[in-house]
Amino acid sequence: IELGAGFNPVLTGRENVYVNGSVLGFSKDEIDRKLDEIIAFAELNEFIDAPVQSYSSGMRVRLGFAIAAQMEPDILIIDEVLAVGDMGFRSKCYAKLTELIEKSAVIFVSHQMYFVNRLCSSAILLKSGQKICIGSPAKTIAEYNKLFSHESKVVSGDQETFVQNLILLDQNKRVTDTFGWCDSLNAELDLFVSRKYEEVALSVTFMGMDGATVAQCHSSFNEFTVHNTYTRNRVRLEIDRLNLNPGAYYFNLIVYDKTNNRQLLWLYATKKFEVTGEFCGGAALQYSGRWHVGDGGQQ
Q1: Cα→Cα distances 68→23, 81, 96, 215, 233, Å
Q2: How far apart are CA 224 and CA 165, in angstroms?
Q3: What residues are paired with 204 via a beta bridge?
Q4: I want to staple 267 with a disulfide (CB 3.0 to 4.6 A). Which of 21, 41, 160, 253 is the partner?
Q5: Beta-strand (E) ranges in the chain?
Q6: Does the pTM exceed 0.90?
Q7: DSSP 213-259
Q8: pLDDT tens digit string along 133-185?
C-alpha cells in the first residue's frame, strides 16, 4: 500500500528496482525483461543510477508505482500516494490503473472523489475504521459528502456591509433547500451597505462539501449594480437551469465596491442546499445537450 516501501536509500534506483521487485515476488529474469519499461514509465532515465537517498519523495513514488504496475500484479493496493507528482505523471498512472483493472484486482484508497467515481466499480466508506457505507461509487460518494459541513461565516468584510433574510426559492417561488437537476433557482436577500459606497456589485459561487468552488454565477457587475439607498436593498438572483450534479452544495456570496472592485463582504457557506436526481458523473457541473447522428451528410 506504500509504494517504494523497502527501498534502500544507499542503492541506486536501478538496484532498488531489483530489490523491490524481488520483495514483490518476481524473479531476476522477469525484472530483466521489464526493466526498460519500468525506467521509461517512471521517467527517471537520467537519475536511475543515482542513489535513492538523493531522490525526492515524488521520484520515489514514480519508481515504486512503475515497478508495481509493470509487474502486472494479481492484487494491487494503491493509497493516496498518487496525489504526488505532476499532472502528466498522475494522468499516466490513472490510465495505467484503468488497464490493470481489466486483469488485476485493484483496491484504490483516495479522498479524490472524481477518481473514485472514474476508476471503481464499487466503493466502501470508512470512518475511524468502521464501515459507514458500501455500494456503488455514486451512493458512497453521496454519503462521504454528508460527513462534511462548513460553518457559515463572514470571511472578510468592512463591518458596515451585511446581508439579512437570504432565502432560496424554487421555480414556483416557494422557499426550499432542495432542487431537481436543471430546475431553476432563485435567491433573494436584503443587502445593507455603508453610505460610503454609491454602487456595489454581487457575485455568487457554489461550493461542494469538500470546500472546493465548483461553479460561479456571472457577476452582476456588467448587468446591473445596486445603487445604494443607504437603507435596505432587496436583491434577487434568478438562475434558469441549475446544472449541478445531484449532491449537497453551499451558496457563497461576495459583495464588492464597483468603483475600485474592493471586496466589502464575503459570506462563506451561508446557505446549504441539495440537488436531487440520478448521479450523472464525476464532474460537479453538468450540461445537458442534444446529440445528432448524420447519414451521408444528412442530419
Answers
A1: 11, 13, 11, 38, 62
A2: 21
A3: 217, 253
A4: 253
A5: 75-78, 105-108, 123-127, 130-135, 153-157, 162-169, 178-180, 185-192, 199-208, 213-217, 226-227, 233-239, 247-257, 262-276
A6: no
A7: EEEEEPPGGGT--EE--SS-EEEEEEES---BPSEEEEEEEEEEETT
A8: 999 887 888 788 778 777 777 777 777 788 889 999 998 999 999 999 889 99
Residue 242 CA to residue 91 CA, distance in Å, equals 30
- For the record, the C-alpha cell of 237 comes out as 438572483
At position 288, the amino acid (one-letter code) is: S
Alpha-carbon distance of 223 to 141, in angstroms, equals 37
* Residue 225: φ, ψ to 5°: -125, 155
DSSP secondary structure code for residue 16 in this structure? H
pLDDT tens column, 97-106: 888 888 889 8
> Strands 262-276 and 178-180, how do they pair?
parallel
DSSP 298: B
- Positive or negative CA dihedral for 215, 206, 233, 183? positive
In tens, the pLDDT along 87-121 reads 778 788 888 888 888 888 989 888 877 778 888 89
